[in-house]
Amino acid sequence: MIPPVEMTTDMMIVFGFLIFVTILFVFEVVRVDMVGLLMMVFLPLSGVIEASQAISGLSSNAVVSIIAVIIIGEGLDKTGVMNIFARHIIKFAGKSEMRIMALVASTVAFISSFMQNIGAAALFLPATSRICRQVNVPVSRILIPMGFCAVIGGCLTLVGSSPLILLNDLMASWWSNNQSVLGDKPFEAFGLFSVTPIGIALVITAILYFLVFGKFILPKVKSKPDDLSCLLNDDLECTYGEEIHSA
Asked: Where are the alpha helices (H) located in the chain, listed in sequence order?
């Protein structure tokens, strides 16, 4: 029988920090990256870990890859790439709701394969809303497929899915520590496009699903002219404000 584990002081400190971090995430008191930096400072100061352990995570390929994905997303935000995509979508799709939905969903899925899923959807939100107003299509019938494809698009490449990055890094360490059990066969880490066939199949299936059943399941909610400002947070409204009002 395994003896019960007693709650130590270090455990209580860590649980306290966990609750504190959860509150910061939920109420968005500070940015997510600032929360991570605060924990790198507070945990060593509390004595739970050593100062060298606080920055040891930066030696992980997974952590550096996720940071790089965030930087790429910020670059797409600042350069206005989404506006170029919006113009081409209107040019090729015309006023067809199904073509607009397919092009927007596939474009967001592609962008999501190289950056965070939420970031890809947020970046394309103003452009999608403008397209819907210009062609008189209910924005709800485009945003829902776009949101689902933004999540599924993370499966197109390894960098698009944070869990896959972490699992790939952890599996390499686990394999090296269990070679006696698993044999002499070397561990082959996932490549950048190892999951691409699965991701492409998922994206195509999702788009076909919305094209076939979209007219039955997607709501027809007409947005008011001022609704867009309610959908955007302060950062997005500040970035796209001039273009939104000129559309």
From this structure: 9-27, 32-46, 51-54, 61-79, 81-93, 97-112, 117-135, 140-152, 162-177, 179-182, 196-217, 227-231, 234-246
- Side chain identity at 160, as an amino acid letter? G
**Burial class for 3, CB neighbours closer than 10 Å (0-12, 13-18, 19+):** exposed
Per residue in 14-48, pLDDT tens?
899 999 999 988 887 888 778 888 888 888 888 88
Residues 104 and 145: their CA atoms lie apart, in Å, by 9
Tokens of 186: 């070397």
Alpha-carbon Rg for the chain, nearest whole angstrom, is: 22
The pTM for the full model equals 0.61
Residues contacting 120, CB < 8 A, separation 6+: 73, 108, 111, 112, 150, 153
Mention every residue, 6+ apart, whose C-beta is less than 8 A from residue 213.
none
